[in-house]
Design brief:
Layout: E1 2-5, H1 15-24, E2 30-35, H2 47-56, E3 61-66, H3 74-79, E4 82-88, H4 95-104, E5 108-113, E6 131-135, H5 150-164, E7 169-173, H6 178-187, E8 191-194, H7 196-199, H8 204-212
Bound molecules: D-xylitol-5-phosphate and zinc ion.
Residues 6, 31, 33, 64, 173, 193 line the site of zinc ion (ZN).
């Protein structure tokens, strides 16, 4: 299983220390949650912090934008060193255009679905995508409980990807721990995000290794 720890649960008073831990760990990417207080009921951090993370982190950056009008910030996200730019389906009436903008900027394009947004809505775009991010909690906060229906969505997405010849990988975000991570591996997920399970663990590097071995 690919693992993308979410920096949202790190100690923001000791970011350099926590990023150093990520650098030394089995993590494949680092997940950055950008919130605007409009699309989601919380505000996290923005480009100045991302630039600092870019300097310190030697893992590829997996950026999850929980903001309205993400198309306005494609070049800023690229300049912060993002490898993957994830935009939410729910805020992109011109999703095909945004996906092309992300790819033209040299990033991998990801589309994110909220828990109540059905997988079938991706049928006409999934072949263009590098990644689909399924939310297994309602976005906005770390430390929430995994929504089990996500397992059915992973299976459905696996089928859709096969039917359309898409090369997209399946990432899941929210409430992931060793138990839900194992269920996701069995359902066919390729990558998990983990915030609290990693950063609140007594041994965060071991928690990452546990997920990576699923
Ligand atoms: C939630 C964020 C998640 C969050 C996951 O809105 O998108 O990435 O940090 O945190 P945990 O793993 O604690 O649910
Ligand atoms: Zn996220």
């Amino acid at each position: 299983m690919l693992v993308s720890p979410s920096l949202l649960s790190a100690d923001f008073g000791n970011l350099a220390r926590d990023i150093d831990m990520i650098n030394r760990s089995d993590a494949h990417m680092l997940h950055l949650d950008i919130m605007d207080g409009v699309f989601v009921p919380n505000i996290s951090f923005g480009f100045p912090v991302m630039k600092y993370v870019q300097k310190l982190c030697n893992k590829p950056l997996d950026v999850h934008l929980m903001i309205v009008e993400p198309q306005k910030f494609v070049s800023e996200v690229r300049d912060c060193g993002a490898e993957i730019m994830n935009v939410h389906y729910e805020v992109c009436p011109h999703l095909n255009r945004v996906v092309q903008q992300i790819k033209n900027a040299g990033m991998r394009a990801g589309v994110t679905l909220n828990p109540a947004t059905p997988v079938c809505l991706l049928r006409d775009i999934v072949a263009e995508l590098d990644l689909v991010l399924l939310m297994s909690v309602n976005p906005g906060f770390g430390g929430q409980k995994f929504i089990p229906q996500t397992l059915n969505k992973v299976r459905e997405l696996r089928t859709l990807i096969a039917e359309t010849g898409s090369k997209a990988i399946i990432e899941v975000d929210g409430g992931v721990n060793a138990e839900t991570g194992a269920q996701l591996a069995e359902a066919g997920a390729d990558m998990v995000v983990a915030g609290n399970y990693v950063f609140k663990a007594s041994d965060p590097m071991a928690a990452i290794t546990t997920l990576a071995h699923l």
